[in-house]
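Appendix B. Chain record.
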Amino acid sequence: MTQASKPTPFAGKRLLVADDQIIVRQIVSAIGEKLGFGTIDTAQDGDEALLMMRKQAYDVVIADWNMQPMTGFELLRIVRADKDLAATKFLIMTARTDKDAVVAAKSAGVDGYMLKPFSPQALRDKILATAS
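Structure tokens predicted for this chain:
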């Protein structure tokens, strides 16, 4: 079986990328494509992401912590409190390295925590570890 035809753990699955920086959305989306996600949608903030999640089920959400008007952390808390969304795999990206941020994200139920800036390989590995 060749590499191109090898099934991935994300074949046919839906990914939502929420970040206020278009370049980050593009990079994460490209990595999602290489991992074989069937559908990849993007949102520029937590509000838009939540609206999309309420219209369409996603298998994995990757969100930036620091967005306005709704942060990725606030989105995570809303998702975990909503019985229809709570099982969604959630990876948060942030430049915050303080212990309090990591503890808060873990306490809120995050599945994975990715520090920015990151290499494409590091993000790929984190998505595989978090969501497969």
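Further analysis of this model is presented in Appendix C.
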